[in-house]
């Protein structure tokens, strides 16, 4: 589905992302781990088009998307959440999701068409909120949500774009320990239907181990390993890379 081929991003002589080869199957959940500064976010930036690779390619269903800007990649089904929150705090939860659905679908100028479209947008927004367990929060101001709920809203915003591949960048960041299990359930449900694939960067190893079919380990920009959780955890090179950090 999504694949990177020798994907590299250099700043001067330094390879921030170094010849990374990843192949994500339909419906697969791939966790990305690595010490701070390993290049995980930079890899996401290259895949989504926020940064242009200096070498290598990104393909989606075999199509080379390396030269496309982010919005074109998104339209082809590549969706991403960010570490920094992208929610409009002064709008309600439902309004946030409606805007995202509208942005994805585009508007129609014909009045008779507008009314039907508005109903469709509202239905799609409510469905996305339901998917992430925020249906009861529709009228709440987004800025007042707790971290865990804000993360759920960000996932709903992402779902509004109907992505086939979702990139989640540290979805557990700032989430209190008691909210983690529910958020894990929401994230698990993302790959359950429709063959949607997920690529997730996360520092919480327990979360990665619970969700990932395979784990990619990055270190100094390169892919150290990409295998089943059991194989990766038993890999001495991976353990060495994490020396001093708990795996
Ligand atoms: N625009 C930039 N200019 C210069 N250096 C950069 C730039 N972006 C990232 N880097 C460097 O590239 C390296 C990888 O950064 P990146 O944010 O991709 O790592 P990461 O694995 O996501 O780290 P973390 O787990 O801390 O989020 C870091 O050393 C960082 O300082």
Structure characterization notes:
It is a single chain. The chain has 247 residues and is an alpha/beta fold. It has a single domain (2-241), classed as P-loop containing nucleotide triphosphate hydrolases (Rossmann fold). 38% of the residues lie in helices and 24% in strands. The protein has 9 helices and 10 strands. It has a 6-stranded mixed beta sheet, sandwiched between helices. Helix 5 runs parallel beside helix 6 (180-192). The relative contact order is 0.18. Adenosine-5'-triphosphate is lined by residues 11, 16, 34, 36-42. Adenosine-5'-triphosphate (ATP) is lined by residues 11, 16, 34, 36-42.
Spell out the key features of this protein.
247 residues; 24% strand; 38% helix; alpha/beta; four-stranded antiparallel sheet; binds adenosine-5'-triphosphate; Rossmann fold; six-stranded mixed sheet
Task: Give the termini separation.
Answer: 29 Å
Our count of domains comes out at: 1
N-to-C series of helices and strands: EEEHEEHEHHHEHEHEEHH
Going across the biggest sheet, name each strand in turn.
Answer: 6-7-8-3-9-10
SS-based structural class? alpha/beta
Averaging pLDDT over every residue, what do you get? 90
Kindly report the name of the CATH homologous superfamily. P-loop containing nucleotide triphosphate hydrolases
Q: Fraction of residues in helices?
A: 25-40%
Main sheet record: 6 strands, mixed
State the name of the first-level CATH class: Alpha Beta
Q: Count up the helices.
A: 9
Keywords: ATP-binding, Nucleotide-binding, Transport
Protein name: ABC transporter ATP-binding protein
Domain ABC transporter: 2-245
InterPro entries: AAA+_ATPase, ABC_AA/LPS_Transport, ABC_transporter-like_ATP-bd, ABC_transporter-like_CS, BCA_ABC_TP_C, P-loop_NTPase
């Amino acid at each position: 589905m999504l694949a990177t081929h020798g994907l590299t991003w250099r700043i001067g002589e330094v390879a921030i992302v170094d010849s990374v080869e990843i192949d994500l199957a339909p419906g697969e959940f791939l966790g990305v781990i690595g010490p701070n500064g390993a290049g995980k976010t930079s890899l996401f930036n290259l895949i989504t088009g926020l940064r242009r690779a200096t070498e290598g390619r990104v393909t989606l269903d075999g199509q080379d998307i390396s030269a496309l800007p982010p919005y074109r990649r998104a339209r082809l089904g590549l969706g991403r959440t960010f570490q920094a929150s992208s929610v409009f705090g002064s709008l309600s939860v439902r309004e946030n999701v409606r805007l995202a659905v509208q942005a994805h679908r585009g508007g129609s100028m014909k009045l008779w068409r507008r009314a039907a479209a508005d109903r469709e947008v509202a239905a799609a927004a409510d469905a996305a909120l339901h998917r992430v367990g925020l249906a009861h929060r529709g009228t709440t101001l987004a800025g007042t949500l707790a971290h865990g709920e804000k993360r759920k809203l960000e996932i709903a915003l992402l779902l509004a774009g109907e992505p086939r591949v979702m990139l989640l960048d540290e979805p557990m960041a700032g989430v209190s320990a008691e909210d983690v299990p529910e958020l894990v359930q929401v994230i698990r449900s993302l790959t359950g239907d429709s063959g949607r694939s997920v690529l997730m960067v996360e520092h919480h190893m327990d979360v990665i181990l619970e969700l990932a079919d395979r784990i990619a380990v990055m270190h100094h920009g390169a892919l150290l390993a990409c295998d089943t959780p059991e194989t990766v955890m038993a890999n001495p090179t991976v353990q060495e890379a994490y020396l001093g950090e708990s795996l």
